[in-house]
Amino acid sequence: MSVKPLGYYREKYIRSQPSAFCVGCGNGTILNCFVRAIDDLGIPKEKILCVSGIGCSAWIPSPNFNGDTLHTTHGRALAFATGAKAYNGDLVTVVFTGDGDGAGIGGNHLIHAARRNINITTILVNNMSYAMTGGQIAPTTHHGEVTATSPYGNPETPFDITRLVAAAGATYVARWTVNNVVELTRSIEEGIQNRGFSFIEVLSQCPTQQRRMFNIRDTVQRLPVRMLRMLEESTYVKGREARGSVCYAVPKESPDTTLAEIRAKFPSVDAEAVDRIDLGRVIKVTSGTDDDLEGLSTLGSVDRLLGATEGKIELGVFVREERPEFTESLREVIRRAGGG
After folding, report:
1. pLDDT of residue 220 exceeding 80
2. 202 backbone dihedrals φ, ψ, rounded to 5°
3. 288 falls in which pLDDT band (50, 70, 90)?
4. Is a pLDDT exceeding 70 seen at residue 243?
5. CA distances from 301 to 73, 261, 268, 310 (A)
6. What pLDDT score does 274 carry?
7. pLDDT band at 141 (very low <50, low <70, confident <90, very high)
8. What is the pLDDT of residue 81?
9. What is the CA radius of gyration of the chain?
10. Does a cis peptide bond (omega within 30 degrees of 0) precede residue 63?
């Protein structure tokens, strides 16, 4: 990935206007990765079509990207993109969608686009809620989370969208967070180069809605930083081993009480309170001896211990394969029908 001054990308690819994103939103990072990817690939803007539906993610290309964008109806971005790609197979077609737009309202289009293996790259931004409309439950909202439509906790379990799309037949499937800018940029490049349906899920922070979902109370300046750290602590990259001895102590009640007890009884360990998507506020313990780590489970304030990757979301590239691409097969069928 080449690195050029930020002003270069802004002048070449971004329309000059105020941002519509909330303070601390991850969408700007995703836009940054996208324009760096197409610049690295040397694709002229005139050959790119960005398609989006409705939601926060729809504002990534439209109106920010200084090129052709198609801002469509809720859940229908992939349907519009399929029509555009079928008509003009030379278009580099990239869909930006969210977890509600793409996996909820547009979920049927998503699985069938993957099944057809149409040559479209889909970037799905997962902030685990219908964020733009007030933070309602989405198909990706974790069990027990508090949202506008689940004030006493979400009774449902979420989709693993990446596995769903892989099972439906996509030929390139990856998942990253907005922390993984190098890997995300590379995956966008690989997705565009793949001749088939490419799907990239991006876990993103949403300070506006996730502070309620994950009960994170902090200043406007610190909220995005805590949420980025939460994404880091809640995920791991496939094939990368954790450094050192790491475990997470889940408190029975107060995290502050558990942290104080660990520091008092095990002074050799490095302990700190961190946020996890699946657990809330927990204590991360590193740099202790094996005896220290085993002794943590005996503390009265500790409910249970989890290993370095236990319960975390896996990141990485999960599918790379080849099979017939839809628009090429469609043109062959049309040729046969015409007697060619």
Report:
1. no
2. -125, 110
3. low
4. no
5. 50, 8, 19, 20
6. 96
7. confident
8. 97
9. 22
10. yes
pLDDT, mean over the chain:
91
Write the CB contacts of 338 (distance below 8 Å, at least 6 apart in sequence). Answer: none
What does the alpha-carbon distance between residue 316 and residue 209 come to, in Å, rounded to a whole number? 26
Pairing of β 280-286 and β 270-276: antiparallel
Pick 77 or 243 by higher pLDDT: 77
Kindly provide the b/e burial profile for residues 28-37, where b requires at least 16 CB atoms within 10 angstroms of the residue's own CB: ebbbbbbbbb
Angle, alpha carbons 323-39-328 (nearest 5°): 25
Tokens of 71: 């801002």
Q: Is 145 exposed, middle or buried (0-12, 13-18, 19+ CB in 10 A)?
A: buried
Q: What is the pTM of this model?
A: 0.94
Chain Cα centroid distance, residue 248: 23
Is-contact 145 213, C-beta < 8 A? yes
Q: Is the pLDDT assigned to residue 242 strictly greater than 70?
A: no
Please name the amino acid found at residue 90: D
Query: Could you write out the three-class secondary structure of the chain?
Result: CCCCCHHHHHHHHECCCCCCCCCCCCHHHHHHHHHHHHHHHCCCHHHEEEEECCCHHHHCCCCCECCEEEECCCCCHHHHHHHHHHHCCCCEEEEEEEHHHHHHHCHHHHHHHHHHCCCCEEEEEECCCECCCCCECCCCCCCCCCECCECCCCCCCCCCHHHHHHHHCCCEEEEEECCCHHHHHHHHHHHHHCCCCEEEEEECCCHHHHHHHCCCCCCCCCHHHHHHHHHHHCEEECCCCCCCCEEEEEECCCHHHHHHHHHHHCCCCEEEEEEECCCEEEEEEECCCHHHHHHHHHCCCEEEEECCCCCCEEEEEEEECCCCCHHHHHHHHHHHHCCC
Q: Is 80 exceeded by the pLDDT of residue 192? A: yes
> What pLDDT is recorded for position 318?
98
Q: How confident is the model at residue 328 (pLDDT cuts 50, 70, 90)?
A: very high
Q: Which domains does the chain have, with CATH numbers?
A: 6-216+221-230+314-335 (3.40.50.970), 243-308 (3.30.70.260)
